[in-house]
From TrEMBL:
<dbReference type="Pfam" id="PF05918">
    <property type="entry name" value="API5"/>
</dbReference>
<dbReference type="InterPro" id="IPR008383">
    <property type="entry name" value="API5"/>
</dbReference>
<keyword id="KW-0053">Apoptosis</keyword>
<dbReference type="GO" id="GO:0003729">
    <property type="term" value="F:mRNA binding"/>
</dbReference>
<feature type="region of interest" description="Disordered">
    <location>
        <begin position="293"/>
        <end position="326"/>
    </location>
</feature>
<dbReference type="GO" id="GO:0005634">
    <property type="term" value="C:nucleus"/>
</dbReference>
<feature type="compositionally biased region" description="Polar residues">
    <location>
        <begin position="309"/>
        <end position="318"/>
    </location>
</feature>
<feature type="region of interest" description="Disordered">
    <location>
        <begin position="340"/>
        <end position="365"/>
    </location>
</feature>
<feature type="compositionally biased region" description="Gly residues">
    <location>
        <begin position="341"/>
        <end position="358"/>
    </location>
</feature>
<dbReference type="GO" id="GO:0043067">
    <property type="term" value="P:regulation of programmed cell death"/>
</dbReference>
<protein>
    <recommendedName>
        <fullName>Apoptosis inhibitor 5-like protein API5</fullName>
    </recommendedName>
</protein>
Amino acid sequence: MERHITDLIKKSLGDVTGAEFRMFMDFLKSLSIFGEKAPPERLKELIGIIEGQADLDAQFDVSDADHIDRLISCLFMAIPFFVRGASGSKFLNYINKHIIPVFDKLPEERKLDLLKGLAEISPYTTPQDSRQILPSVVQLLKKYMPRRKTGEETNFTYVECLLFSFHHLAHKAPNATNSLCGYKIVTGQPSDRLGEDFSEYYKEFTERLSSIEDLTRATMKKLTQGMAEHNKAMAAAKSDEAKESIKTQKQNTTTGLRTCNNILAMTKPLHSKTPAFIGDKSVNLSWKEAVKPSVPSSATGTGVKRPSTAANGSNNFATKKGRGAGGMQNQLVNRALEGISYGGRGGGRGRGRGWGGRGRGRGFR
């Protein structure tokens, strides 16, 4: 029966909105055939469904805001399955080939979401994928880690995301950094390229590290002073509205300090000519809750718990629990069956794939 329902849902996915697709995926995840002990081919099936909605076979158009929204939202939806061992190669290759080359042209809030997604997928990449995308990550890292002070505002969350990605990718393909950053890491493979002189790259990269460290420490000093002022303001605040506003400011300051601490923790080992890249969970991304030692649930997986701030964009896949899963499942089953029985839900509503844009009618938002 679960197999039958899954097939019905897959047939219905040609005509869904973003919210409907979320609902279908939540339902599929609840089925025993896709549970924690599901074999690799089942995870591959789910990832295939998500890849289809993300349009990873389509030529990318940076002006297509709908495709960008779907791509990033589907990436976050897929991350819990990457954690369980599914391959993220298709997402990574698409991002590397189509998205990063036009990164500057992306909407500002989508840039941040993309970098967060890249950071969260990086611990689960293969050595081959890591080697392919590392040059692109290093180029972006250099863009946001200036060699010298420029007077321009630094986006520390961008730097945190890229450093985190760099460490985890380089951990899997360490000798790829020899020709990118001038490191001297010996693996015994021809790709070590130890006979070539990349010392200028090393000098440049470490200068960038030192520059971002200086900026980060200066920012930490300001944030720490700001926290003391917030505490004073909280003590003097009388209305609930004022207290709530100060509380929000304190939370933002705390997150900012976590970002800065993470940056310093990740730049420190990179000054060595043979650095040890971080490939474990010792660095917890600033926007994520501290990981507890208990077994993680896919329902609260990566990308779900992101705070709903303007910086994160309005289209992240935040899901609300409760209200009885059984009721939702019955509703989904009925709707799926109805769609097949009557030749497709809402025939003639003209929605196409239903994610907005490109004549799809109802938008993703």
